[in-house]
Amino acid sequence: MQTLKIKEKKIGFSKEEIENLVLDLANKGFLPSRIGEYIWKNYSINVKKFTGKSIVQILREKNFKYELPEDLLSLMKKAIEIREHLRFHKKDKSSLRGLQLIESKIRSLAKYYKRVKYLPENWDYDPEKAKIIVSKVYGKS
């Protein structure tokens, strides 16, 4: 069985230009997943294949650091959405259990990020603070 080799398209960008584009988008407030999506949709470039580094690696090299990691933010957003749901549906036991599981994941992920020194040692998950942080990042009130 033969494998087809597809020639890579000649792209009018250098690795440095793509890395600078990643940094510019991060400075505008894009999260790493959105940066990759934006570059793919607008330039048809897979950042990791083109540069040989992930978006997070590029941002670390350029000394750019988000307030919180993206996976922790998305879990916090999910927990906030479930809390909002539970405000109106107090007897929804399965959602309550889902909230407990998500908050457990948040705490264990926070423990990991404290260990690798990405979060300060005194950082603690608080639903009210999380709501403020998530609304700042995702632009929801």
Give the gist of this structure.
With 141 residues, this protein is mainly α. The protein is built from 7 helices and no strands. Helix 5 packs antiparallel against helix 6 and helix 5 packs across helix 7.
Walk me through what this model shows.
It is a single chain. The protein is mainly alpha-helical. The chain folds into 2 domains: 15-61; 70-138, S15/NS1, RNA-binding (Helix Hairpins, Orthogonal Bundle). Helices cover 65% and strands 0% of the residues. The longest helix has 23 residues, at 93-115. The model is unreliable at 1-8 (pLDDT under 50).
CATH superfamily of the largest domain: S15/NS1, RNA-binding
CATH topology of the largest domain: Helix Hairpins
Regions with pLDDT < 50 over 5+ consecutive residues?
1-8
Judging by the overall fold, what is the CATH architecture of the largest domain?
Answer: Orthogonal Bundle
CATH class term of the largest domain: Mainly Alpha
Q: Nearest-angstrom radius of gyration?
A: 19 Å
Give the averaged pLDDT, no decimals. 88
Number of domains: 2
Strand content: under 5%
